[in-house]
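The data are set out underneath:

___
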Amino acid sequence: MKRLGIFVFFDKNGFLDDYKVYFLKELKKNVERLEIVINGIITDPGLKILQEFGNVTIRSNEGFDITAYKENIARLGQENIEQYDELVLCNDTVFGPLYPFQEVFDEMASREADFWGLTKGYADILPWAERGRNISFRDHIHSYFLVIRKPILEDIRFYDYFRELPEIKSYLDAVFIFEVNFTNDLVKMGYQYDILVDTEPIRHNSTNLLAFMPLELVRDFRCPIVKRRYFYSNLEDYSTWSISNMTSDIFKYIKEQTEYNENFIWQTILRNGQLFNIWKQMRLTSIFDENLISSNNLASTQKFATFIHIYRTEMADELLERMSVLPSYTNVYITTNTKEKATLLQSIFEKEDFNQVITKVSQNRGRGESAFLIEMKEIVKDYDVVCLMHDKDSPNEGSSTPMVSKGFSYKIYDNLLHSKAYVLNILDSFAKNPRLGILTPPEPNHSFYDSAFADLWTVDDNFTNTTQLLEQLGCTIKLDRNEHPFFTIGGMFYFRPAALEKIFDKNWTYDDFPSEPIKTDGTILHAIERSYAYIAQDNGYYSAIIMNNDFAELEYGNLKYNLMTVYRTIRKEVQKTGQLGTYTLPVHLELLFDSPTSFVPRSHRIGMKIANVIQRTANFVRRIKRRILS
């Protein structure tokens, strides 16, 4: 068939990702003419590449892809468009094709239909918050890939339809005004449609199979695409309706069972997604075996070093015992703040069978972070993988409750250096996953560290300082204060130096760091700690959490207990009207904050407010009384 394609491109920074180039290469094999529409901006290199595929039109980023379709159908006009057998309307919101487009077009050429698409959404009723009402709709073709055939292209009503299409102001407008109506509006005109991926046998599972069953669509129905945004968004829907295995499952299948380049996926999700969301969707938690080593373990191919800062020499023997699980070819670099300590540490660590032990003296300003970034910045570039450590004790945090601080240290050290096999499996993972940038132990979540469940930024200064630091380093990653951060809490982790080169390129001096005593939060040290994973992300690498399988058992029990405690507390404090879970939790929490929509009787809410006022007044009186008596 003679085909005309209209492809809509959008990127907030105007960057042309490789997956889009691949999509266009495959599409171009099946269309005679390709019109490319840029919504917003495009870099000069990207523009030149796009122009190789067809005519490029640049428009303001208004009205989403739907308005871009509308304007270009009007620009081309019926006289030009009706010369083609098929008009392909598509955009850059999908990864693919996972199978050749030739296969898709050949299959659909054998079917009788006036218009068709790749996948469909099923009838549903959804809230349209912007309009303050629910909206119901019927089965419809997903609008990321629509193909219109000649009978419709010769019908003036098709052009009138787009000309009269209401203004699209939001994503929901694009869905509810156009996508869910377009199919049925053409059916009302007397036309028939078809879908490449016949999901009728599994439609009972969900009205949105594209989101919730992508593996089945690709594997069992040869769907040639997956939606991009599911790799780093839609967390609430996934956790509400499923166990959130979909994204990681389909990625594994694509990586292992198709010829599609996984780097196309990594490149764009790391550039566009929030790191915590990527971690959640891609299931970036690695539980390494503490005993088994695979027959094709590649740990020995990695040039490996450990950098450790030791201020408290009394911890040297404990640290050496921990580090005894490192492979014998490890080069160990130790920084400390005096020559006397350096001599002592050299003599202690030379007892272990390391390849090399080198000690260096650093200034006592900025602790391990300054020693690492100033004294080791040139050395680090010589290695494939580095383990960064320091003498973790946190006396200020746990002076009255030392077990709290001890638990933090245990969690870090045990998941950095659990056994010889465990470390080799970590190094093997770096060898086999070139996009892997950082492996870090999990955050503490016991005692007062349970803030890890709420906000690891902890104070606004940390967010501000981290944002400013990333900007100074030339990183384009944009942080969101409302998004949960992902970072190397405790400042000890394995990393690929190539992933963090931007922080080593900065000309750090000791004046960049605060002098002692250092605040327990909100300093440049805490910003550096929070920046590492984002620097790696900006450079195209992902970060993951590591645990040994023995510790994972403990972590699961602790997390389950903590979550059960939260829900049990809510049950006690709030009237229970139904099942309590992730889906219903927001409703119950609203009651705790006395929402106007609360179903707690108004008299009860007023009584609680009065009781709270009385309690605050009584507390104030007691404070005044104590001051007078003192």
Summary: The two ends are 94 Å apart (CA to CA). The chain is about 45% helix and 15% strand.
